[in-house]
Design a protein that fits this description.
single chain, 243 residues, alpha/beta, Rossmann fold, 6-stranded parallel β-sheet, two-stranded antiparallel sheet, globular
Amino acid sequence: MSFSKASLSKVLVSKTIGVLGGTFDPVHNGHIQIALDALEALGLDEVRLMPCHRPPHRDCPALASEQRVELLRLAVKDHPQLSVDTRELLREQASYTVTTLESLRKELGANVSIVFIMGADAFAQLTTWYQWERLRDLAHIIVMARPNSSSPSHPVLQQWVEQAKLSASESEQYGEDLSANIYAQFHQQPAGGFALLERHLMDVSATAIRTELEGVNDSKAAAHLPRAVATYIQENGLYRSGR
């Protein structure tokens, strides 16, 4: 079954599911914070953390797919509304978001609202993604950004941001920082919306954590990891030089 923009415009939404992709190499507290913030701010029913197999825009992960999945499962085990979706790991080819969203839409049908969650850095590069113009035909997009983050340079993305800000200014607030217009759109339509949500995000990166874990003293890295994840990494000697 194929889904067009028109076929998704007039349906009764039964569920709202968030999708947070990444290499998760390793998953850290910043990832979990983003998932939980989106879950709460948008009133999502669930957020799926989706590890990619072969990211098109970055180097291949240091850990094998199976190890990254195990770390993700440990990270979400105490959060019943977070889950791990491994569909991208089943593909040998590069992990394209549009292909993933097509697969997810085919599985969930037209009555589920899909919200693709991304950070400001990834959003700034969105126009370099494969068939990026189709993403909003398949899902809503929400960008989690720090306050006063720089605007994207591409005119289409700038227009998305300005329209979202205009919608927010013309609407009552839902919660602390989300407009009622945007909240309603994400819950009444299965795809097509865009929102920018400013949050005080953790200043942590997987690259820095991997560097710290390569050393003898990995206590600094452990402070940025879910406890079960830090324990598993330590017990199995992951990321250690010469492991």
